[in-house]
Every structure is written in C-alpha cells, then in structure tokens.
Design brief:
Blueprint lengths: L1 H12 L4 H8 L3 H9 L6 H11 L3 H4 L6 H20 L6 H30 L17 E3 L3 E5 L6 H13 L3 E9 L5 E9 L5 E6 L11 E6 L8 E5 L3
Antiparallel strand pairs: 1-2, 2-6, 3-4, 4-5, 6-7
C-alpha cells in the first residue's frame, strides 16, 4: 500500500501516465494499476525496476520527514543535465543535433538583437543620438505638437533609426522597417518601411541610393494634425 502511494506521488510529480510508466518499466499497465490501488503486493524485483526508472529509492523515501518531491526534482535536474550533455555529443545523431543547435542559436541570436535594440531605445529616451538626426539646415526628424515629419537621409545611422522608431511610438505612430541597408560608414543607404498613424492612416514607401542619386532628396512621411493642414498623412517625397 505504501509503495503504491509513493508510486502515484512520484508519477504525478514527473507528469507521467500509468501507460508511460508501464512502458518504461517493461510491465503491463494492469500491474501498475493494481500496485497503485493496493490490490497486489509488488515483488522486490518489480519495486527495484520501478524505483530505478522513476529515479527514487522507495526505502529511502519511506523515512519519516523525507521530501520525495525534492528527490524527484533532483532526479529531473540530472536528466536535464544528461540531455544537454548528450546534445553536444555529435558522435550519435549528428545531423539531427546540429540542426537543433543551429535553430537554437538563431533563436537566441534574434532574441539578443531585439534586446539590444530595445535597450538602446530606452537608453536614448529623451536624448536624441548626436547630430546624425540633423542635416545641415533641416532636420530629418521634425516634431511639434501637431506635426511629425521624418525624412530618411544618408545622415541617419542605426542608433538614429532606433531612437526615431521608439519616439514615434510614444506619439502614437508605428513604423515597421521592412528592409534596411547601411553603407560602409554605417549611414543609411536604403530603406523600405510601412507606417501606421495614430488615427489609423497607413502607407508605405521605399528609397535607395541615399548616398548618391537620392542624396539631396527628402523622402519619408508626414503626419500633420493642425487645423490648416491640407493633407493630414503623407508618404513619399517631402517638400520644405
């Protein structure tokens, strides 16, 4: 009866069904059911097999005050450590393990990239990154109470784009960078993006050759909610 109760407790802690325990121990499901219900007294050999498979010592866990759940947690940690070590052992199932490791690396790398971008955006909150936001006499990023205008030029850098994206969000404007390319000086070379304004207006645009052909052009988007605005939302070529 005591062993049956311990079996139920450990099995539940490990999240296993009676069928799974039976398969792992190479016994019938009926045997597991009868042991747990207390209708049969298991043989010592059966108790030994079940204990080894589930990672607990019945005689040890039967001692007064012993935390069987802690024992199972320790066993689970050992199982996890073994799986991690085995994953890096390329002597068996090499291609499958390489595929798993490559996928995991890509996921981790993408997560780190997002984290770094968000960190840069937060650290620059309230402080525009140096003069890369500004051209000689006109700003790439113009903000007033009613008007927001962004002109994407070769003066912008990665930090500039991160700041602009973060600051636009606080103004209710969401911008999606679909494609971005920088030149060898880390200045914006081409961009393809999609913008959604706070009142639901949306539009996209793309521009390249910002260091040559389109160097002196102002292309981007404008949200103007002032009373005298002729066009409240516009994407593409911008006028002074």
């Amino acid at each position: 009866m005591d062993f049956g109760k311990k079996l139920i407790e450990v099995r539940n802690l490990k999240g296993l069904t009676q069928d799974e325990v039976a398969e792992k121990c190479n016994v019938t499901v009926r045997t597991i059911q009868r042991i747990e219900s207390g209708t049969v007294k298991p043989r010592a050999f059966t108790m030994k097999i079940i204990s080894e498979v589930l990672g607990f010592d019945y005689f040890e866990t039967s001692n007064t005050g012993y935390d069987v759940s802690q024992k199972v947690r320790n066993s689970n940690r050992k199982d996890l450590l073994f799986l991690i070590k085995d994953l890096f052992n390329l002597k068996t199932n090499a291609m499958k393990k390489i595929s798993i490791l490559a996928t995991s690396s890509l996921i981790i790398g993408f997560a780190v990239f997002i984290l770094v971008s968000e960190t840069k955006a937060q650290s620059s909150s309230g402080n525009e990154p140096n003069s890369s936001i500004n051209t000689e006499n006109r700003q790439c990023y113009v903000k007033t109470n009613d008007r927001t205008e962004v002109a994407f030029t070769n003066k912008l850098t990665f930090d500039s784009l991160v700041y602009i994206k973060s600051d636009l969000k606080t103004r209710g404007i969401i911008i999606y960078f679909k494609k971005i390319e920088f030149d060898d000086k880390n200045h914006l070379l081409s961009i393809d993006c999609y913008v959604v304004s706070k009142d639901g207006c949306k539009g996209g645009f793309g521009v390249g050759s910002l260091n040559s052909t389109n160097k002196n052009k102002r292309i981007g988007f404008c949200c103007d909610y002032s009373k005298n605005a002729k066009i409240p939302f516009h994407t593409g070529s911008l006028t002074d």
